[in-house]
Write a structure and sequence with these properties.
The longest helix is centred in the N-terminal third of the chain and has 17 residues. The protein has 8 helices and 17 strands. It folds into 3 domains: 138 residues, Rossmann fold (3-Layer(aba) Sandwich); 58 residues, SH3 type barrels (Roll), CATH 2.30.30; 81 residues, Elongation Factor Tu (Ef-tu), domain 3, CATH 2.40.30. Helix 1 links the parallel strand 1 and strand 2. It is α/β, with parallel strands linked by helices. It is globular, with a radius of gyration of 21 Å. About 2% of the residues have low confidence.
Length: 359
């Protein structure tokens, strides 16, 4: 990447700091940019993109000697990420704010900023790879470090932008990135990993959702047993539950129970023993294909339905309206309306979309 003029998205963490420093050391003309997403800091050490993180990103730019700017995207972040997050939980669905942030901010707003700074490419600290296929077209692949792979969050990238995106850490492991940070003298080399949802702060995500929804929109109800319909107890809001959840149900039984389904219309949260809590068939809508050609009407793939869950064998059928009907090889916990479903063939991301209905 030497000789390129590269806009580097800098969150203030070690990964994006190393990307900026290594590109600068390799001879690229680096321009650092951080997104100011919210005004008040979240819990120290557990978030990214806070005001304090912007200072860390600026320190890296100053140490390396490249220009650095802050892009104020608070209004966009509020609309496209925070409000979406709150509304989805209020509807009994499970949002994916990191996918929304990547789609609508990092790889939308920042890619459009390339023209303003006359840059050739946008680089980020994601652990994913973009590599050429034998025919010269580009494929999005999993990162080489299985523990850090972030390709799940990137399924919304459009094929046409892949030539202008760089993931320099995609072939590296986290331990090597830390070592390189120390070698390059990056000021954030020892900074802890960010955790949790960046904008939640000190309370729980459920407390944030409840406060933003207000009492009139919080949907209380009861927890019911799938097998019998028996009411096990009340709850104070469907936003506190997601399919696959075991802890924090607020009810007791003779065996561990898991959330099977959340119904915001009635307020019912359905729970079951593990062997009855999984889902096997679901539909996916708003699909984006990263493979050069859309797949056939029916095809086999592996599908990932949560960031931290392993990919699952599945048979996929494309329906006439552009949606997908997915049948898993076996029932799986945690298949939730509102979450992303990302399809793979080996390490390659074929595409992905949003889980709409779980049957």
């Amino acid at each position: 990447m030497g000789g390129e003029r590269v806009l580097v998205a800098m969150s203030g963490g070690v990964d994006s700091s190393v990307v900026a420093a290594m590109l600068h050391a390799a001879g690229a003309e680096v321009i650092g940019v951080s997104m100011r997403l919210y005004a008040s800091p979240a819990t120290p050490g557990k978030s990214c993109c806070s005001p304090d993180d912007l200072l860390d990103a600026r320190a890296v730019a100053d140490a390396c000697g490249f220009p650095f700017y802050v892009s104020n995207l608070q209004a966009e972040f509020e609309e496209r990420v925070v409000s979406y997050f709150v509304e989805e939980y209020g509807r009994g669905r499970t949002p994916s704010p990191c996918v929304a942030c990547n789609d609508h901010l990092k790889f939308d707003v920042l890619l459009r900023r390339l023209e303003a700074v006359d840059a050739d490419a946008l680089a980020t600290g994601h652990y994913a790879r973009i590599e050429p296929r034998p025919d010269g077209t580009l494929a999005l692949l999993r990162g080489a470090d299985p523990a850090k792979d972030q390709s799940y969050f990137l399924f919304g990238l459009r094929r046409e932008v892949l030539p202008r995106v760089r993931f320099p850490l995609g072939g590296m492991r986290k331990a090597d990135v830390r070592a390189l940070a120390a070698e390059l003298g990056v000021p954030t080399a020892a900074k802890p990993e960010s955790q949790d949802i960046c904008f939640v702060g000190k309370g729980s995500y459920a407390d944030l959702v409840a406060s933003r929804l207000g009492p009139d929109k919080v949907r209380p109800g009861v927890v019911r047993r799938v097998e019998t319909g028996e009411v096990l107890g009340p709850h104070d809001g469907v936003h506190r539950f997601t399919p696959g959840q075991r802890r924090g149900l607020g009810v007791a039984d003779g065996e561990p129970l898991y959330v099977r389904r959340v119904d915001a219309t009635t307020g019912d949260v359905w729970v079951a023993a593990r062997e009855r809590a999984g889902s096997e068939v679901f539909t996916v809508e708003r699909v984006n294909w990263l493979a050069d050609a859309e797949p056939p009407r029916e095809f086999s793939a592996s599908v990932q339905v949560r960031y931290r869950q392993a990919a699952l064998d599945a048979e996929v059928e494309r329906t006439g309206d552009g949606a997908l009907r997915v049948r898993l090889a076996r029932p799986e916990l945690g298949v939730a309306p509102g979450q992303a479903a990302v399809f793979y063939r080996g390490d390659e991301v074929l595409g992905g979309g949003w889980i709409e209905e779980v049957r």
